[in-house]
Amino acid sequence: MTVDVVPNTKPYYQSSMCPVNVHWHLGSEHYSYGEFDENGDGPHGNIPRPDWAARDLAESGEKVQDGFRCHYYDASDPKFTTPYDWKHCKGMEVGETYEVHWPHSAAGACGTVNQYQTPFYDGVFCNLDMDTFSTLAAQDIANAVGVHGQVFTIVNDESYFYPDMMRGMIIDEEMGMGQDIAYYTGSTTGETRSNEMCSMYTPITWQVDRKCHMISASSFDKLCYDMKMQRDDMSDDLHAHGSRELVKDDLVANNQARKALRA
Question: pTM of the prediction?
């Protein structure tokens, strides 16, 4: 899709944006060949690549549409199969792949007790009235609203613990986390969006880690605890949401950029 806007490739804080929500999807919504794709695996298998995609690209009990899996899962390795005693997250499972999203906004209640909100639209538009919103050009929105995306396989292994998943994508050069980033403009996601039903919230910048990473179940449970400590009720985001189907080529903006090292 030919577009006349460009993604915001700066760290979001340099554009006065702050994280206003965190939530995750079952499986990956994005596709990175060799990282999270149709060849990955998990406790319940994977999903196939859509027939049209004939090219290689680099609450408990609730049924949601799932996405792709990473390649780490090994049923013979106990860190992928040993159950975890979840205290705060709902319906999560060791060995599964989840894609975490951190919506950011320059119109959020940054630095206040109301910064994090559910649903994320409330956080994104917290300090933006409709009169002002109506004056914004597409590029203004892409510069001021963005999402971090990062894909994880959950393991029951404390050597993969990270204490703070609230503030955005994990950046760890030693572990190769947040180092290979794809930038583009797109829209909001989830299983209510498809290649036939588009989102009205566009164009927003996406900054997505192209690599999959292992992370401890305790890291996620700590995240859910932190979410429960916010002033706004974030209980609707304590479980995995469904994943949007893979976006068709002709619906993808032609403005992708890539940085192999994030400063």
Answer: 0.89
